[in-house]
Amino acid sequence: MIVWLASYPKSGNTWFRVFLTNLLRDSDRPAIINELAGGPIASARWLFDEAVGYDSGNLTSDEVDLLRPEVYRYEAEATKEPLFLKVHDAYTLLPDGRPLFPSEVTHGVLYFIRNPLDVCVSFAHHFGHENYDRIVQDMADEQRHFCDIQTMELKQLRQKLLTWSQHVSSWVEAPHLHVHVVRYEDMKLDPEATFKSAAAFAGLPDDAERVRRAVKFSDFPELSRQEKQGGFRERLPGAQSFFRKGEVGSWRAALTPQQAQCIIANHADVMRRFGYLDDHGQPVF
Fold first, then answer.
1. 42, 79, 188, 202: which has the highest count of C-beta atoms within 10 A?
2. What is the CATH number of domain 2-114+141-236?
3. 118 Cβ contact list (under 8 Å, min separation 6)
4. Pick from 54, 55, 37: nearest CA to 202
5. Torsion angle, CA of 85/91/92/97, rounded to 10 degrees?
């Protein structure tokens, strides 16, 4: 069975995967960030090509999407241990009505959510720029895709993101799926309790001492130290670092009032639902 580690980009997904690796290995030293356990990202091109036995580069993105549910069924049947697959796709239905991520091979979903104001800043730095206006627009674009470049074959397949609000709602309201929402801010403010709860949901070891050690080995100073020493394979070429700050509320020093208000206007309903806005519509974090 598969546990989907789902999130809009830059919302804590990779951080949890580091914790997952430390928890599973239960070692007396931190896990290496370039050797994360669990499984690949669900959009990995090699995963698709290996399962289908055909070069995805010879298919259109729409044709690839029609086969992806079968890839996940194949992977679930081929493994003897639970798969923890990172996902940035929104939860969508294919033209024939089938869900992209089949419920019958799903144990559950850990959905990682982060204040979209901070997501905006982190996402921009992920691409190696500070054009926050562009990210504000992208996060409100219903047609937004990830890795949708027609002129070259990327390591990942096309992923439909939708808007930030639509992405969140698509997963937390997905029918027939058992979903546990994990707020990035809770991961920062109360990491042991938050990670312990997520581990228990996913059927992972959750005894307090083991969780405490895994949390310690997964903190940002340790991740940053490792990245500076040996790099991180998931960092894009233009970005200075992947594990940059990981702060809560960094948007306050980066975004203009106009940019912040635009994000709030675009996503107020979902932000309020998950505690990012107070009763007066003001940011909580």
1. 42
2. 3.40.50.300
3. 184, 247, 248, 249, 250, 251, 285
4. 37
5. 80
